[in-house]
């Protein structure tokens, strides 16, 4: 169990102990549908997958390196995550999301791995690592608002920072070998469109869902991004609640720039447990 999870559970325990009883005044409608601000702070428990390829300088296309399979990366982890929202005007809102993960490991290669113009040799010791950062900013407008529900759509950006490295013994000319370290990285703002729907199930319960999509060829990037979330929040007191959500993030993009010509295919899918604050 990681430090992130320990801190989160400790905070949940303290807040639960200090939270006032149900007799305290609450809104007739859940605060997610009425308050100006909300912040969700929690832990994301995703099954994750990372595959990437680095094509040769002569245009040769290499197969994806599956880091969970070939580099023995952990398939499951717990990650600190944050979401926030600001409702302004009569129907406008700004929302955001953040999470970040990284991993490093070493292993013995079971087969050759091609990375750009080098080949890491099967049977040799290798080390590798990867990092992933997502920051989402989204501006939207409500178009269908009722006493207990709201539906809207808008547009935004996903800022992605992705990188990976691999080091070990590589094959050089005439069958010789040498030690090498190869790395790639890319930071990219990908625009997207999205929709959301929130429903106040009862005085203390709210259902929330959203869906973002990018699918286009823009500059150096060509591919698809999907970011989906659905879950419920329980209002413990006037300004505090707890939530449970299912989150799915998926990216499959071809990259063509001076630092990295290839492809990245990654996904994070699992439960997100959070402490919710609204005012």
Structure notes:
A ten-stranded antiparallel β-barrel has the order 1-3-4-7-8-9-10-11-12-13. The chain has one domain (about 5-20, about 30-279): OPCA outer membrane adhesin/invasin (Lipocalin), CATH 2.40.128. The chain is elongated, with a radius of gyration of 22 Å. The protein contains two helices and 13 strands. Helices cover about 5% and strands about 65% of the residues. By secondary structure, the chain is mainly beta. β12 and β13 (about 260-279) form a beta hairpin. It has helices at about 5-20, 65-70; strands at about 35-55, 65, 80-90, 90-110, 115, 120, 125-145, 150-170, 175-200, 205-220, 220-235, 240-255, 260-279.
Task: Summarize the entry for a quick read.
The protein is mainly beta.
List keywords for this structure.
elongated, mainly beta, 10-stranded antiparallel β-barrel, about 280 residues, Lipocalin, disordered N terminus, single chain
Count of extended strands: 13
CATH topology: Lipocalin
Number of domains: 1
Q: What is the beta-strand fraction? A: over 45%
Give the distance, in angstroms, between the N- and C-terminal Cα atoms: 32 Å
């Amino acid at each position: 169990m990681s430090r992130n999870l320990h801190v989160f559970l400790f905070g949940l325990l303290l807040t639960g102990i200090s939270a006032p009883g149900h007799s305290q005044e609450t809104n007739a409608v859940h605060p997610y549908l009425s308050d100006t601000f909300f912040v969700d702070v929690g832990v994301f428990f995703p099954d994750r997958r990372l595959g990437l390829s680095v094509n040769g300088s002569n245009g040769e296309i290499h197969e994806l390196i599956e880091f969970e399979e070939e580099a023995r990366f952990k398939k499951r982890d717990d990650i600190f995550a944050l979401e926030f929202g600001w409702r302004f005007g009569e129907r406008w809102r700004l929302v955001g999301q953040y999470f970040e993960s990284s991993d490093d490991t070493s292993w013995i290669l079971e087969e050759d791995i091609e990375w750009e113009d080098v080949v890491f040799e099967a049977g040799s010791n290798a080390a590798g690592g990867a990092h992933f950062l997502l920051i989402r900013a989204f501006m939207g407008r409500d178009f269908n608002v009722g006493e207990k529900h709201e539906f809207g759509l808008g547009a935004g950006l996903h800022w992605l920072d992705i990188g990976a490295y691999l080091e070990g013994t590589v094959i050089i000319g005439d069958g010789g070998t040498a030690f090498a370290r190869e790395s790639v990285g890319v930071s990219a703002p990908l625009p997207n469109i999205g929709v959301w729907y929130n429903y106040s199930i009862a005085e203390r319960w709210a259902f929330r869902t959203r869906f973002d999509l990018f699918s286009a060829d823009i500059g150096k990037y060509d591919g698809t991004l999907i970011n989906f979330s659905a879950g419920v929040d329980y209002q413990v007191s006037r300004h505090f609640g707890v939530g449970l959500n299912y989150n799915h993030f998926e990216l499959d993009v071809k990259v063509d720039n001076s630092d990295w010509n290839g492809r990245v295919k990654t996904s994070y899918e699992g439960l997100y447990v959070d402490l919710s604050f609204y005012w």
